[in-house]
Write a structure and sequence with these properties.
Elements (H helix, E strand, L loop, with lengths): L1 H17 L2 H7 E9 L7 E3 L2 H14 L5 E11 L2 E11 L5 E13 L2 E9 L2 H8 L2
Parallel strand pairs: 1-6
Antiparallel strand pairs: 1-2, 3-4, 4-5, 5-6
Helix pairs in contact: 1-2
């Protein structure tokens, strides 16, 4: 079970890094439950892959297309749940920088991610970057 879950999540994260939206979409269950941390315009629950794509589209707009998953540092599994330490970077046209680690916890069922909970190592930095 762990190997299958890690494969799904690793494929998803590699697709995010490459900008392979077709693979990203195929990796996410249409009714995924996504929890985004913080107190900014992108924070809170998302209840579908459509809402997740809308959130990411907004993040790319705010970051002038610079938002990038630059590193996947750790991937660990327990059953069908996979935790990852990932690193994100972005720079706004104003020069404001986002440079933060997150811990993402994914639940995989039937070859798709059905739940994602994101934890930020620096919520203040994320809230300041994404503003409201």
């Amino acid at each position: 079970m762990e190997k299958g879950a890690i494969k799904v999540v690793s494929t998803f994260l590699a697709a995010v890094q490459k900008g392979d939206n077709a693979t990203v979409a195929a990796s996410l269950h249409p009714n995924i439950e996504w929890s985004q941390p913080g107190s900014n315009r992108f924070s809170g629950p998302k209840k579908s892959s459509t809402e997740v794509f809308q959130m990411v589209g907004g993040m790319l707009e705010v970051s002038a297309g610079t938002l990038a998953l630059t590193d996947v540092k750790v991937t660990a599994a327990n059953g069908n749940t996979v935790a990852c330490v990932v690193h994100w970077k972005a720079v706004k046209p104003t020069g404001v920088v986002l440079d933060v680690d997150n811990i993402d916890v994914y639940t995989v069922e039937n070859g798709q991610i059905v739940k994602a909970k994101v934890y930020s190592a620096d919520l203040a930095q994320e809230d300041d970057f994404w503003l409201n």
